[in-house]
């Protein structure tokens, strides 16, 4: 039986994780788009995690954390706090493995998120919308149920799971010259960096985030984890700050983190919808926005872009008007 | 050199057409969706022509008509009247083959359609928005330029081109038990019917259209081509009536044509956006709406659904509110 990872995943850890979760995830397609390539002046390869189970890459990390639990741990269940894609990913992983899931969500989370999570059979526990309330409510749930807390990003099993997206991308496109992910808490970014560093050491690794929550850019340049005074961005998956496990990996392996404005995010999102005919969520448009905003860096390159998710509220889109 | 088809395409004609247009089209993917399968109680295989060049299957027919012209005909160019996907398909085919294109469009067509067509290098000629004005303006253009008129559907080259979508679908999924397309002018429907009849004679062939423009359903049951008194549907690609070349094929090979309401169309469109994370236009949602509305017919079947196109105006979506 596999055990939980207690240090930075090796390439072998990432490969074993990929095998272990193969029945719980989709091997998502890599798409290209000639007209966006012309605009970017580069050859872009989009790894379509918007087509992943639960509509986001988060399924990889949650699945990898779940499959590594012992039989008795599984029986007690999984727990997390999230109002986003990680909530649904943990709920779905638990459902597939036949164990309970407990999801702490702020009471102002959209009803659609609560319903979707419950749709996967999870118990949703609402709390006051503060970080302190989230953590204390989660602690109560864990104490009551004995469930295992699966952190959304600062967890080596989760990092190794997210790292499998880049593994599939590099296997599908063996001659990338650069790769770029968005940075929220850094789970996907650190996983992408590790896989790329091990497998394709010549490939440049970039991060991207909204200017409005540029904590990762500031952390990368100051050398310690910075916070966001506000969280006023459409890219709601990227508001979180880096973790103690994700930041060192990011600091070590990235070339740079690029920040983009809100209009640049919406324009990149619209470009993908219109030209590629696929649905991506705002957070997911951030790396393309960064590529388009930095032609001096990316022009002429073969760039892997991880499209992270496709969960949008169709009743509240940023295009109309 | 291939010549223009002057009678109903044979399987050999369809195969030759497919070879002839291979450089002008994408071989589009076939997608499946476990959660929509559960709702439908059937196994659905979506042929994603929303990912086709110009965002719609129309590229196949326009390309096949264009490649069959002689060198002197190509030099004089292509002409058509359309404000929809056929306009862009003809413009794009002409652009790739390096010849002029003249597109007659009603003056009330959305500016975005005019710009997109001009973006492919075509000359757009505006006319009064009546069928008579369209035809007389087109006649003037043809007289002035010597261009060849490519009818949007009532043309055997166009029918053979559209038939190549089903060819690829049956090759990808050799054990379908049913196939369904939308019916507008009948180019795609008749092509789908011919390919399926030749290649998989046991497969049931169905059509689908909006109740609001149920001319094909009425024609199928009355035995002669019927008109639509109104054209008040969101499925703007399906307002046209059948043609003299398409109707006999449809009459001969279809099991039935199902009609669906406007709310059923929007619900099916939304389901595809939310569950499959791909963008389809309203006309494109009609066959899925028909499958969902008729479980007595489709439950337990392996159904091929041709997703026809993904060109929507993101500023005017039918979901909000």
Structure, explained:
- The structure is a homodimer of 321-residue chains.
- By secondary structure, chain A is of the alpha/beta class.
- The first copy, chain A, folds into 2 domains: 199 residues, Rossmann fold; 91 residues, Rossmann fold, CATH 3.40.50.1100.
- Chain A has 14 helices and 10 strands.
- In chain A, the strands form 2 sheets. Chain A has a 6-stranded mixed sheet with strand order 1-2-10-7-8-9, with helices on both faces. Chain A has a 4-stranded parallel sheet with strand order 5-4-3-6, with helices on both faces.
- In chain A, helix 1 packs across helix 8, helix 3 crosses helix 8 and helix 12 crosses helix 13.
- The radius of gyration of chain A is 18 Å and the shape is globular.
- Chain A starts with 10 loop residues before the first helix and ends in a 14-residue tail after the last strand.
- The mean pLDDT of chain A is 96.
- At the A-B interface, helix 12 of A face helix 12 of B.
């Amino acid at each position: 039986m596999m055990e939980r990872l207690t240090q930075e995943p090796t390439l072998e850890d990432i490969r074993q994780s990929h095998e272990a979760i193969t029945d719980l995830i989709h091997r998502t397609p890599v798409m290209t788009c000639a007209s966006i390539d012309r605009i970017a002046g580069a050859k872009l390869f989009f790894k379509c995690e918007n087509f992943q189970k639960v509509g986001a890459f988060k399924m990889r990390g949650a699945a990898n954390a779940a499959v590594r639990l012992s039989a008795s741990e599984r029986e007690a269940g999984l727990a997390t706090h999230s109002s986003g894609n990680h909530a649904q990913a943990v709920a779905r992983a638990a459902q597939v493995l036949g164990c309970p899931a407990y999801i702490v969500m702020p009471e102002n989370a959209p009803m659609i998120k609560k319903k979707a999570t419950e749709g996967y059979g999870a118990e949703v526990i609402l709390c006051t919308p503060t970080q302190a309330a989230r953590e204390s409510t989660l602690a109560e749930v864990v104490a009551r149920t004995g469930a295992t807390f699966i952190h959304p990003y600062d967890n080596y099993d989760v990092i190794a799971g997210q790292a499998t997206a880049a593994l599939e991308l590099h296997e599908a496109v063996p001659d990338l010259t650069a790769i770029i992910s968005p940075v929220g808490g850094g789970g996907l970014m650190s996983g992408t960096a590790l896989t790329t560093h091990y497998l394709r050491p010549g490939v440049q690794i970039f991060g991207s985030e909204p200017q409005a929550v540029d904590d990762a850019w500031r952390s990368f340049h100051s050398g310690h984890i910075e916070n966001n005074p506000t969280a006023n961005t459409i890219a709601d998956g990227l508001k979180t700050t880096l973790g103690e496990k994700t930041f060192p990996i990011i600091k070590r392996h990235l070339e740079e983190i690029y920040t983009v404005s809100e209009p640049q995010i919406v324009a990149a999102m619209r470009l993908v919808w219109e030209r590629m005919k696929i649905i991506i969520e705002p957070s997911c448009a951030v790396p393309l926005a960064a590529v388009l905003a930095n032609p001096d860096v990316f022009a002429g390159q073969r760039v892997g872009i991880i499209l992270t998710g496709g969960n949008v509220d169709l009743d509240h889109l940023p295009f109309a008007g």
